Amino acid sequence: MASMEKRIRKRLEAAAASDAVSGPVARLVAGHIDRLHRRTDWEYDGREAVIDAVSGGKPIIFALWHGRLAMSARGWDPAWSPFCVVTSAQIPGRLVGRVMRRFDLDTMPMKIKRSNTASVLQVARMVRGGTTIGFAIDGPEGPKRVAKPIPIDWARLTGAPIWLYTNSVERYRTLPSWDDMLLPRPGGRGVMMYRKWDAEVPKKLDPQAREALRLKLQQDLDALTLEADQRMGHDGLIA
To answer: What is the mean pLDDT of the chain?
Structure first.
């Protein structure tokens, strides 16, 4: 019985990963995101600064929470600089990648839970070639708003600065997912915020210093997200 369930699960996973299924799903999701974006009155804080930061081929590491990922597809214009979203190599991550590609953003799957030297080196090559890297720092499976040290490792390896990104909306709903993903309801206001992280990441880090930077990154992204939520009239973090 267990072996039969395993075979069935593998077949379902293969079907979900197929172009015939994931392609139309990604198209529907991207269309929904685009409609929600167009029906929200957006303001931008820090956008000109981030555009200036990447001018002339100077890449950055773009860090956000997974729960604010949906509208981030419209938070970056590929005309500013090449952009690659690092996703999970699992089926949900590959679907996210397909959605992001509908917005002309490149994607790269990474097996976050395993030793992934080849992918880390690929990220380093992309950054050194002028590509900005986007990463949901609590992804792919949480815990919610608990930062992973991966972007700090990338910054240490490449010398690229980390920028924080978040978004919030006045009218919203959250999906029943581990990250409480935020989606706008049509007709309200929204804000997208960009901030250069004010921490220096040295080339050499001992475990204690690495953990201190990870915790600061987590706290600073939470603070920016709280600022965005409060600007939209909410008392605290809404997701």
So the answer is: 89
